[in-house]
């Protein structure tokens, strides 16, 4: 038979004649033979069994899933089922065939009776993918052949690429807006009043940044940071607020337009009202006519266990974030005492950057941990009934873990760094020794920007490089270890050289896939979507980087699936599953996160309070003066050197500018007892008011946008209406 007529290939080691493994293998193959499967064996250093299902299985599948009006026709009046459906049905039967020892293929694989099972790639179809300008690097900007993808990999993979393409297309719009805000920020803020004041503050003495003989320093020393911070972050201007609101609207419009696109696509595929439960029941009955369906069940006890386990894992991840905080605290103390002048002068920046790299390594390690955890361990307490339920439950858990892995450290930097460290003379310390770090000299949002930029760039360069390199090297390594022909097979008849052999071997050498392989691709993109939306106010270039990354990601995933991996088992679907709910939840978190970044992390609110309450403009006597003039002095508090803690070791020789005994630090505190000033409470109230206003306005706009853009186009609704009318009219 031609090599492409085989539905699946089973691979096994060569076992001793009469051994337990050989007997179990024979029993399983005998069960397949009883169901009418054709089996072909090819021998080499391993045994390859090609299996082909009988046609009656597919006719029965078509018959069971036809509409009631179609069943009035002759059962023999059938069309050929698509290759993707053949593979899916055969895969289900293979994994649900029970031997006399009550063992399934999964059990036999655990016992090393079989090594693996996979469907074959189709040589001509692979060439067509290249011809259609999809699975090659140089065609990075060409439109994807979604219909061809569906015909080869199934609806679920096709919907993934359709969603990724739609997401990338709309990211282009967000990228243009983000770049526009960035350029405006550069032109407006490069000569900002605040930068000028910092650069001229050569008489403002600041407190030492560490406890062990760190020098006093002048605020003007951070002139470079001030300019870079203003240009990079575009804080202290209304553009950031507008961009954050824009991204909240963009996230909503993106999801609403995707729902419309998805509805149009699945209606074209005649899958709009498709039910995966019904298909799974049909395949169970085809495999075993006496099968009784598993009942839906819910156990509050099991659900409680799941919640407790999830909370335990979240606590572990928060603990890892605390470890990163401790690293930054200790690193800051060590760098400030380093013998290298560069480390001493840039201790804060180096600590932030190395902390970001360490956070990235933590993400990589924990991602590997989640991927190596047995799926059964995460799903066993709940006992889901169908594959869709298993996948949804698995998705929620792993995404929750990955979200905390990626964002717990960012949440600390955005909302706690520099706010819980105390003040000179009363610092909060780790283990009573190392004081908690302060914000970057140019502002707290600089730390968040550095962290976001470092992780985003590393994830979109190094991670993508590894994502392509590892499967490619694995494939090359397997190809070099090509099994050579074996002349004698113990206890087996030797098979003559077969034209299928080379093709089966080349498929076997490809990287293995599993039922959650597509999940990994979705997870990567949804985490990227989180980075693009949740803290975009601190990193407005995130959409630009995501857009560039996705152009590469589409081709990278295509090349992996077509050239480097075995063929996925096609799955039928009419949506992207629970990922849509996850994306909607991220949209809500994006509104909250960006509102908090603008209200708490940036200096936008304190500057506005100063402009409209304390600046020279409020006295109405200087129309030509910038209303933010004097803000830097307003945001500083004074501190007496004699009030430092006893174990604070000051430099032995104080510089001339520090001998007056008064120094300053960024906070709103009284000079006598270091309690909060009235200005602090004004700023606090303004932050809270802005947060409430911003989130209510942004959420209202999101809901209006969701209402304004219908989920389902009228053309789709009319198509469904016509089908219903036609069916009823025919019945009449």
Automatic annotation (TrEMBL):
It is a multi-pass membrane protein. Residues 149-720 form the Anoctamin transmembrane domain. GO terms for molecular function: chloride channel activity; protein dimerization activity. Residues 84-146 form the Anoctamin dimerisation domain. GO terms for cellular component: plasma membrane. Its main location: membrane. Keywords: Cell membrane, Glycoprotein, Membrane, Transmembrane, Transmembrane helix. The keyword Transmembrane applies. It comes from the Eukaryota. It is found in: Cell membrane; Membrane. The chain crosses the membrane at residues 157-186, 240-258, 304-330, 350-373, 394-417, 526-552, 573-600. Belongs to the anoctamin family. This is Anoctamin. It comes from Eudromia elegans. The lineage of its organism: Eukaryota, Metazoa, Chordata, Craniata, Vertebrata.
């Amino acid at each position: 038979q031609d090599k492409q007529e085989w539905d699946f290939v089973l691979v096994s080691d060569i076992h001793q004649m009469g051994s337990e493994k050989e007997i179990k293998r024979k029993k399983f193959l005998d069960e397949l033979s009883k169901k009418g499967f054709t089996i072909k064996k090819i021998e080499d250093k391993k045994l390859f069994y090609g299996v082909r299902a009988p046609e009656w299985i597919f006719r029965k599948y078509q018959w069971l899933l036809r509409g009631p009006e179609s069943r009035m026709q002759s059962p023999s009046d059938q069309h050929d089922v698509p290759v993707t459906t053949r593979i899916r049905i055969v895969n289900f039967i293979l994994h649900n065939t029970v031997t006399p020892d009550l063992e399934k293929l999964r059990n036999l694989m655990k016992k090393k009776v079989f090594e693996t099972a996979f469907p074959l790639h189709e040589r001509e179809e692979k060439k067509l993918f290249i011809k259609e300008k999809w699975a090659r690097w140089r065609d990075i900007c060409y439109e994807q052949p979604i219909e061809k993808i569906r015909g080869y990999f199934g609806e679920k993979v096709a919907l993934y690429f359709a969603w990724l393409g739609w997401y990338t297309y709309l990211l282009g719009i967000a990228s243009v807006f983000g770049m526009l805000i960035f350029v405006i920020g550069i032109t407006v803020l490069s000569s900002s009043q605040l930068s000028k004041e910092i650069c001229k503050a050569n008489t403002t003495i600041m407190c030492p940044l560490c406890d062990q003989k760190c020098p006093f320093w002048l605020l003007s020393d951070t002139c470079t940071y001030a300019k870079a911070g203003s240009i990079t972050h575009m804080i202290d201007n209304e553009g950031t607020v507008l961009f954050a609101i824009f991204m909240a609207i963009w996230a909503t419009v993106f999801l609403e337009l995707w729902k419309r696109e998805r509805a149009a696509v699945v209606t074209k595929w005649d899958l709009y009202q498709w039910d995966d439960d019904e298909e799974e029941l049909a395949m169970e009955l085809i495999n075993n006519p006496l099968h009784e369906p598993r009942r839906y069940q819910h156990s509050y006890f099991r659900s409680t266990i799941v919640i407790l386990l999830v909370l335990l894992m979240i606590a572990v991840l928060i603990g890892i974030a605390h470890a990163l905080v401790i690293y930054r605290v200790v690193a800051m103390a060590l760098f400030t005492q380093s013998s290298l002048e560069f480390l001493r002068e840039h201790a804060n920046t180096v600590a932030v950057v190395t902390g970001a790299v360490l956070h990235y390594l933590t993400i990589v390690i924990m991602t590997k941990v989640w991927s190596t955890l047995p799926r059964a361990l995460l799903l066993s307490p709940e006992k889901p009934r169908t594959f869709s339920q298993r996948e949804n439950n698995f998705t929620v858990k792993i995404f929750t873990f990955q979200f905390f892995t990626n964002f717990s450290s960012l949440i600390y930097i955005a909302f706690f760094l520099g706010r819980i460290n105390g003040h000179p003379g009363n610092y909060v310390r780790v283990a009573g020794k190392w004081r908690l770090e302060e914000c970057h000299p140019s502002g707290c949002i600089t730390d968040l920007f550095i962290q976001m930029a470092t992780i985003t760039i590393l994830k979109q360069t190094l991670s993508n490089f590894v994502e392509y390199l590892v499967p490619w090297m694995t494939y090359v390594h397997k190809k070099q270890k090509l099994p050579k022909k074996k002349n004698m097979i113990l206890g087996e008849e030797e098979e003559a050289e077969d034209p299928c052999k080379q093709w089966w071997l080349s498929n076997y050498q490809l990287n293995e896939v599993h039922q959650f392989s597509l999940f990994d691709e979705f997870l990567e993109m949804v985490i990227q979507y989180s980075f693009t939306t949740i803290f975009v106010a601190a990193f407005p270039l995130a959409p630009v980087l995501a857009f560039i990354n996705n152009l590469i990601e589409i081709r990278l995933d295509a090349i992996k699936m077509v050239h480097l991996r075995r063929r996925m088992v096609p799955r039928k679907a009419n949506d992207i599953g629970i990922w849509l709910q996850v994306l909607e939840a991220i949209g809500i978190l994006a509104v909250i996160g960006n509102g908090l970044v603008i209200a708490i992390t940036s200096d936008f609110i304190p500057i506005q309070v100063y402009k409209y309450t304390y600046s020279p403009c409020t006295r109405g006597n200087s129309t030509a003066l910038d209303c933010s003039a004097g803000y830097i002095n307003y945001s500083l508090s004074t501190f007496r050197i004699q009030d430092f803690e006893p174990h604070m070791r000051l430099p032995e020789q104080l510089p001339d500018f520090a001998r007056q005994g008064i120094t300053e630090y960024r906070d709103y505190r009284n000079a006598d007892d270091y309690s909060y000033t009235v200005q602090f409470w004004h700023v606090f109230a303004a932050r809270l008011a802005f947060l409430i206003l911003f989130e209510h306005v942004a959420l209202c706009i999101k809901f209006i946008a969701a209402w304004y853009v219908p989920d389902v186009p009228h053309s789709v609704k009319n198509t469904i209406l016509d089908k219903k009318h036609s069916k009823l009219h025919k019945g009449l």
